[in-house]
């Protein structure tokens, strides 16, 4: 950012051209300010306080085939283990420079685990989830609970839960990781601790204990009353997500409400102890578009990331257009208008966002230019 | 209540015996107070403010066979229709005198619908649920949504939702109704309106639309964000309740937590938009006891009603003991210590209570004399 | 209530006149039901579920001069002390029969303490407040904090706080007590314990410690974060109430918003840790009407009690009209339309209600027939 | 940040030294990743996920005399008006590089207004407050309400409220501004709009209308029920802050609780509609230390900024020690242990922080190494 660059929507201060003498005095003053660690607002306000969010982050699409192939290559060249902790490739927003942020708040990565590999246990205050685009054979162990990972599953590792993974299959497995690492790093909130090198539970059950206790519709164990900051459900199995979306479209076919807009079904993954988002900083949803259906256009404060689970779509984000096929990842920066049009076979889209942060802080704002 | 009866825990005021003259003056004063619609606290306090809740309601057991047989008889003699509205037999607590209250807050009734019968639509601000002890073939239509009723199902009709029922089977059907009618009546909060004579939807779908939209574990439709006062799930199908309870016991077998106490599994029916109770005034739970398992003893502010769904049990409530078999109903008045011991085949128990009222008003209190 | 009385708004069940034989069978059935502690809904519904609240409580006015004079008389004839606990004259709603309820939820009483008298300490789960209509010289000691009582002050004794009073003045003192005794009694939630006979603090400070810690506008002690069920402010001093009301009227004079309606200023006493009502079950407000100002007409679920603090007014409640002068008390039963017109010198009115109970349970409803 | 720098608390990955051939392959892979906008976690984790917050921000002290003198100089050389908007000197944390952030979330600035000057109206979604270290004669107009500014006052401009200032005195005036500009900028949430050039209300009342309506202890206008995101009190007058702090110390002298720790009184400015913080992102407090009193040592997630209002103190922050006199500003970065020791005349300290952000997101953590 150039300090003297005013964003187009701010007017330049109406100051008469200084004389050379005034110029010298001003410069002396600005030098003195710099020594004192002071900066004048009047030379920055357009950048600091734009008329609407002007994110440095840009919309970008990552191609799944390329992601998968380079993840595979890293599986050949780089071992996974203590220190590096995870074989995860972070999707780095081209507009955000150095660190691996897909958005100012969010981290997204492809994690890859070869057959027989083991990612040692650790914990961190950062909230994490995994979404499985394909494969099976990995169990993630969260606070001692072995959770199977299969295509379509959405899995939680809320902040400060110990977790590790192992792949017991004969095939490698790759999935999407989402965390609030950038938020924690920029806001200085993160804590991290190593756990055991070996997993604390090497069993491979069909369902996690968290599902057996908590994943029943509208039912909760009497032994655990009260609200929790994060969902106790470790695995949102694909079977239920798929069914909920199908039902919305079937209700639409029968003339009843339930979908977000015509041809656009969507569910939000929630914390059953509160009915709100799965974790304090991250929202996760699954969207299903009928063939050729188009979502409403939205401007929203905050960031979304989509991954195509099935089918194909075209994403329109600000001025950009992205063709998306299975596995591709695309992000929507804050306040950029976006809509998605499904291809001829329809589209299933996993989505996560940082919207809960801004809703809790009363900073959220949504605008639909089509007027709804 | 005798105004001059002091409860055993209150001391009598230490007042010297009045002289006859004083007696006359006192009587004159008390007469005058009565004319002015005044009553002196010092002659009432033991009754008005006992040391702990001393409910007029008593623990009582209603025998299912008797209930069912008289309900059947009423089916022969009394038509159902507009005016009487429902063929419901209210369980009247023997301690509460005239009106049909099973507790100061709660109404419980057996409702009976003969083949082909139709209970016309109406709505009321009173919250209502139904629990099906046996049979099938009735659909309840709630705000235009046809909801099937089958053994083990728990069904909601939150306050101000239009509802009616019809029986399309060749068999009569009976179920348990629970409402907060006594609370509404005593607190003067109730509103009531007639709806249509015929049901607004005579279809007989396998699942209600409310289930299709909302009864998916940890998932909610994106189209309906926000908290609601009452659960949007119209039917909590037995299949899920049964599975959740079985899983708790299986987890206990495997050495993991989840049950309330040894051999005692329990789930609470919840509002998925908040994680709390299904309706603002009524809590509903389902308890499963292993053979010979015994619940912890509790004193609780508020009232519980149990119905045996399967198996048999002995309920110990205050000084009383009740043998319970399938279908029997028993109530626990406020603060009476209670525990339940399952019979040799175990026991499945539906339970509802008014505890949410007292939790919201910070009046709840629980005491376990065994010290946990 | 006559069980066979249908409220005017319910239709009578459309049942053909029974034959003598049918009549016998019906009677046999109803007898059997009575033995089984069952009551048929169809013979009660109009009473149990009226179209709108039809309270047994009636609107009534108590005359302050009469109240005060009989309170004085009781001061001569009846000592205050352990057992009777308080020299309090409960205002008994003429519609509510035996016990001392001004409303189904609320107790209101005049309490009288002669010079040098002492009301011993006790505590109860019932929430209590006092409002001082005249006089000074009594300190109420709440959990060891000596709280002065002076004309216009509103004082809290939230549930389970130990409290006693003593009068150190040379004059007797009388005030209005408000509690949720009827709610606790009918709902079986009440607990009671004796404390010390002598007050735990006999000092007579100008301000209570609770005021010194908590009664600063918009400020709270950092040492006590978090929400509390009841307000920590023991005394809402008249000085602040008066000023807040005057400011609302001054703002109205200057053309700015703030009053409830033209000429009608009102403040609500609140819990500074939450911004909501002072206690979980009781709302308290103070209303000031300009000369000849008239409040809007309201139907409300729940009960209000007014006491005239200064000036005079006419209260219109349902079909009734009451002339009110200083000290007079009047109640508004649930759903009865009411408005109040100030006399020529205006009116200052203290008001308390049970509205928080019904708001928390989603049972509140308000209707303004003038159409705001 | 060097991507290959592991923080001292992370172990380096235990990878065997690659052969030259492997080295080439790795480099090719890393080059390819860069092209694809991917970064491997294993080369970053120590920086991205340190064991505890390792803020880039450093603790720094700004000297009031220097601040004031350069502000004065800018008053001579730079006009205030549309475009630059405010004559505000932002305190730029030496550890945070380019933009003017005192913390990752917070902006702090000295604003200076010469006699007769006028800062035009605008509004922004960023939350703002002002704290007046000395002087009087400025009115800030917030949504049309003219609010006086005097020494010790704490003033609010919640997000999206129009506001401007004018100085009607014959002296210049300077004060401390605090905003969440950095949070809004980094999180892309900010909106900004110009208002009128001239103030919408040029009156100079003794009290703002917001104070007249809302600044009464424990009282709120009945006309405005419900919770608000930000406090409706525009001005927290010094008189009340001072009194509340004095009372805490007087209670301590008398042996009663109320202070944070011995000799350390503190109040939090709150939103009277909720009892919580004045604005969704910013906490503000005032601390008073007796002569030579020392606060407890704390590690806290989040950032604090202190300004000395009166007296002198020594701040111990991490490894650093700062001598503070009247007007000096010092910041505490996240998780740096801090305590403050008052000088011989005691110290009055204004304090603001971003703690509400992290409390709402369940990311707050506090640690007192002294074990309390």
UniProtKB/TrEMBL annotation, chains A, B, C, D:
Q: List the biased-composition ranges (Polar residues).
A: 1-11
Domain of life, per the record?
Answer: Bacteria
Signal peptide position in this chain? none
A GO MF annotation of the entry reads: oxidoreductase activity, acting on single donors with incorporation of molecular oxygen, incorporation of two atoms of oxygen
Q: Does the keyword Acyltransferase apply?
A: no
Enumerate the UniProt keywords alphabetically.
Answer: Dioxygenase, Oxidoreductase
User: Which Pfam families does the record associate with it?
Assistant: Cupin_2
Q: Where is this region: Disordered?
A: 1-22
> Which residues does the UniProt record annotate as the domain Cupin type-2?
111-177
**Mind telling me which Gene3D superfamilies this protein's record contains?**
Jelly Rolls
- Residues that span the membrane, as ranges: none
Keyword Iron assigned:
no
The cross-references to PANTHER family, in alphabetical order and at most eight, read:
1,2-DIOXYGENASE PROTEIN-RELATED, CUPIN
Q: What is this protein called?
A: Cupin domain-containing protein
Organism per entry: Corynebacterium tapiri
């Amino acid at each position: 950012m150039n300090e003297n660059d005013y964003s187009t929507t701010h007017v330049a201060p109406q100051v008469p051209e200084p004389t050379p003498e005034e110029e010298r005095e001003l410069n002396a003053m600005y030098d003195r300010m710099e020594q004192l660690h002071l900066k004048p607002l009047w030379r920055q306000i357009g950048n600091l306080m734009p008329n609407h969010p002007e994110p440095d982050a840009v919309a970008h699409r990552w191609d799944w085939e390329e992601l998968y192939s380079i993840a595979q290559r890293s599986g050949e060249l780089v071992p996974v283990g203590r220190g590096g902790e995870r074989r995860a490739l972070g999707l780095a927003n081209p507009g955000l420079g150095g660190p691996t942020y897909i958005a100012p708040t969010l981290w997204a990565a492809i994690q890859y685990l070869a057959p027989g590999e083991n990612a040692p246990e650790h914990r961190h205050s950062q909230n994490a989830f995994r979404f499985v685009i394909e494969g099976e054979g990995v169990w993630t162990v969260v606070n001692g609970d072995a959770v199977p990972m299969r295509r379509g599953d959405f899995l939680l590792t809320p902040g400060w839960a110990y977790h590790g993974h192992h792949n017991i299959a004969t095939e490698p497995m790759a999935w999407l990781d989402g965390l609030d690492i950038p938020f924690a790093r920029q806001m200085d909130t993160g804590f991290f601790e190593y756990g055991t090198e070996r997993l604390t539970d090497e069993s491979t059950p069909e369902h996690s204990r968290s599902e057996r206790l908590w994943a029943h519709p509208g039912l909760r164990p009497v032994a655990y009353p009260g609200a929790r900051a994060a969902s106790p459900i470790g695995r949102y199995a694909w079977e239920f997500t798929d069914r909920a979306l199908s039902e919305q479209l079937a209700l639409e076919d029968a003339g009843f409400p339930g979908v977000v807009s015509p041809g656009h079904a969507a569910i939000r993954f929630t914390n059953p102890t509160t009915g709100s988002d799965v974790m304090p900083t991250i929202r996760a949803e699954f969207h299903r578009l009928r063939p050729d259906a188009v979502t409403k256009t939205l401007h929203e404060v905050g960031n979304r990331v989509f991954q195509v689970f099935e089918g194909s779509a075209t994403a329109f984000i600000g001025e950009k257009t992205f063709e998306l096929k299975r596995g591709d990842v695309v992000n929507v920066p804050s306040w950029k208008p976006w809509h998605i049009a499904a291809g001829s076979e329809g589209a299933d889209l996993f989505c996560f966002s940082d919207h809960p942060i801004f809703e809790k802080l009363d900073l959220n704002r949504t605008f639909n230019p089509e007027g709804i």
